[in-house]
Design a protein that fits this description.
Length: 323
């Protein structure tokens, strides 16, 4: 065989293998992204200026994620960037503006999951990490573990060089006043922030970040950093991020069970989310956002309201607080 023929044979043999091994091949131009900023009692009598401030914040968060996906970005990146924005926004109970614990400090939780390979990372009870969602992703990508907690998670953050802040950085005057007076505000923001996205490559990612519940015991951990309870993503079925009374989402393994109902029982996404939120949980205890492998979405809650938004490749872009 001549050298030219030999080279041609090798190229023709290897080219299909190389093309097949590409992991970021666009399957279609379809994408969907959903976000939440917590669920609970949200008084409809709040001033229009306050309502618009929340809607504008949801708009900004959703726009960040939509732009990433529309430009061919990955779902895992969209989820992280959206939640980082919400962690920086004091209107939400995550990062800056997180609620106070019973002892007057902040303990933050977050998790992120990639539905492509079920890889996950989470942190719980961090006190000096500016963006817990990014540290959760570092746990996923830089360690062999799934969940790091407390001082160990903070130390890991220092070692890998994520942005460190003093615990008082998370204070806001409104949160401090509320904690000191120990009374309910017009907006009861005891939930979390979260994002779920399906990208053009067919990959689903989900993430959740929270300051927990106000007046929580030192060391309390809710569902947000617990994969299967408050966060789950699987390319075979769907991605989920939950918000509400964490203990109930843990006991009912809510996020995973939505995927399980779809995979093992043949439920649609809406049927599965409604089953968990409206039949398994008590009224007034929370909500969730979800996207399935076909781009369908669900924004299901059994509370008075839920800060939420959805956008997709069909041109849909919508944010809401109440029904």
């Amino acid at each position: 065989m001549s050298t030219l023929k030999r080279i041609s044979f090798i190229v023709l043999f290897l080219l299909p293998i190389c093309l097949f091994s590409q992991t970021n091949v666009i399957n279609n131009s379809k994408y969907t992204i959903v976000i939440h900023g917590g669920a609970g009692f949200i008084n409809k009598d709040i001033p229009d200026s306050t309502k618009n401030e929340y809607l504008n914040s949801l708009n900004e968060a959703l726009t960040i994620g939509k732009n990433i996906l529309a430009n061919g970005g990955k779902s895992i990146d969209a989820v992280e960037k959206v939640i980082r924005y919400m962690e920086d926004n004091p209107n939400f109970n995550s990062g800056k503006g997180a609620v106070f614990t019973a002892v007057g400090t902040h303990e933050l939780d977050a998790s992120i999951m990639d539905g492509k390979d079920l890889s996950t990372g989470a942190v719980a009870g961090v006190t000096i990490i500016k963006h817990p969602i990014s540290l959760a992703r570092k746990v996923k990508e830089k360690t062999k573990h799934v969940l790091l907690a407390g001082p160990g998670a903070d130390q890991f953050g220092k070692e890998i060089g994520v942005e460190i802040v003093d615990n008082h950085y998370f204070d806001t005057p409104e949160r401090l006043k509320s904690w000191q007076k120990n009374h309910k505000k017009k907006i009861d923001k005891h939930g979390t922030v979260g994002c779920v996205a399906l990208d053009m490559y067919g990959n689903i990612a989900a993430g959740t970040s929270t300051g927990g519940i106000s007046e929580k015991m030192h060391g309390r951990v809710g569902d947000s950093p617990l994969i299967n309870a408050g966060t789950y993503a699987n390319n075979k079925t769907c991605g989920v991020s939950a918000t509400g009374v964490g203990e109930l989402f843990i006991r009912n393994t809510v996020a995973f069970n939505i995927s399980a109902l779809m995979e093992y029982k043949g439920y649609t996404l809406k049927q599965a989310t409604d089953e968990m939120i409206h039949k398994r949980l008590e009224p007034g205890t929370g909500g969730l956002i979800a996207v399935d492998k076909d781009g369908n979405y669900s924004l299901s809650f059994n509370t008075h309201g839920m800060f939420r938004g959805v956008a997709n490749s069909k041109g849909l872009f919508d944010v809401k607080i109440w029904e």
